[in-house]
Write a structure and sequence with these properties.
There is one protein chain. The chain is an alpha/beta fold and 297 residues long. The protein has 6 helices and 13 strands. It folds into 3 domains: 33 residues, no CATH class; 65 residues, no CATH class; 167 residues, 3-Layer(aba) Sandwich (Rossmann fold). Helix content is 24%, strand content 19%. The protein has a 5-stranded mixed sheet with strand order 11-10-9-12-13, sandwiched between helices. It has a 3-stranded mixed sheet with strand order 1-2-3, with no helix packed on it. It has a 3-stranded mixed sheet with strand order 4-7-6, with no helix packed on it. Strand 9, helix 2 and strand 10 form a beta-alpha-beta unit. The chain is globular and about 80 Å long. This is ATP-dependent 6-phosphofructokinase 1 (ATP-PFK 1) (Phosphofructokinase 1) (Phosphohexokinase 1).
């Protein structure tokens, strides 16, 4: 932050002075500080240092706003992890710290509550041994553009980690209790599905009880259960995760928000929303095009 003198009216400036003001300012060199956290720096217009201290939430939040940190239910608090070194050391140049968080974009008209969420990205240590894992993927609710692309990337990434047993559950939550219908997913089988519509797993809205589903997942040895769906789907996923913890079963339940309605709290935009908006605009434009020549509008 620089404390600048009152600006000179541009009308009183010569052309050369106006061009100089329009130039991009040089990159400022960081000040030496005795702490590792981001710094809050205030200088006067001549570059004299006025303040140098650790950056605090109050320095970036709008007046009266509250910073709220949202935590993920960490399995390692309940079950001892394997602490396996990540096999992605040759792919990932920099791992994300365990306690890294991302803050919502802040402006002066931000809401009273600003959220902080765990920063996504690869961690250096894994909770499970990938080669011993069974992973499942299921799509629930209505169809949405991009479902096959999400399934593809899940399978590709799990395979990179070394997971050898990946199953796609057909028919939404109904298919969870029918393991004989599960289909094995491999990188080669999902290679081109992102160019296909709908979902190869066949989405459905009905579901058995969370008790039945969690028991089947335990019987099948599932350690990672990926659920793609909306708010109702995620409520069911939460119940399943809690039931498996109560039964002392170490299983990670991962929810992937999916809804063309864009009605999941704290998300700026869910995938599929933009395509729905484009389709709506196209319908309105077509209606106007065909109605304008009509005499009885």
């Amino acid at each position: 932050v620089k404390v600048a003198p009152p600006p000179t009216p541009s009308a009183n400036l010569a052309p050369a002075q106006r061009r100089a003001l329009q130039k991009k300012p040089p990159r400022l060199m960081p000040h030496k500080k005795g702490f590792d956290q981001p710094a809050f720096v205030v200088e006067d217009f001549d570059g004299k240092l006025l303040t140098l201290r650790q950056l605090e939430a109050k320095d970036v939040l709008p007046p009266g706003a509250e910073l709220r940190r949202l935590l993920i239910d960490d399995l390692s608090r309940v079950f001892p992890g394997k602490n396996v070194p990540s096999p992605l050391t040759d792919i990932v140049s920099r791992f994300v710290a365990r306690d890294a968080f991302a803050t919502q974009a802040i402006s002066f008209d931000s809401p009273e509550c600003v959220y902080q969420m765990p920063l996504a990205g690869a961690r250096s240590v894994l909770h499970f041994e990938p080669q011993d894992m069974v992973a499942t993927v299921v799509t629930c609710g209505g169809l949405c553009p991009g479902l096959n692309a999400v399934i593809r990337e899940l399978v590709m990434m799990l395979a990179q980690y070394g997971v050898q047993k990946i199953y796609g559950i057909r028919g939404g939550y109904k298919g969870v209790v029918k393991p004989e219908t599960w289909m094995e997913l491999t990188p080669s089988s999902v290679q081109d599905i992102n160019s296909m519509g709908g979902t190869i797993l066949v989405s459905d809205r009905g579901n058995p009880t969370e008790e039945e589903q969690s028991q089947v997942l335990m019987d099948m040895g599932v350690r990672a259960h990926f659920i793609i769906g909306g708010d109702g789907t995620h409520r069911g996923a939460y119940e399943m995760a809690e039931l498996m913890k109560e039964k002392n079963w170490n299983c990670s339940v991962v929810g992937i928000p999916k809804t063309i309605d864009n009605d999941i709290p704290m998300l700026d935009c869910t995938f599929g929303r933009s395509l729905r908006s484009a389709a709506e605009r196209r319908v309105v434009a077509d209606g106007r095009f065909f109605s304008e020549p009509a005499g009885n509008r």
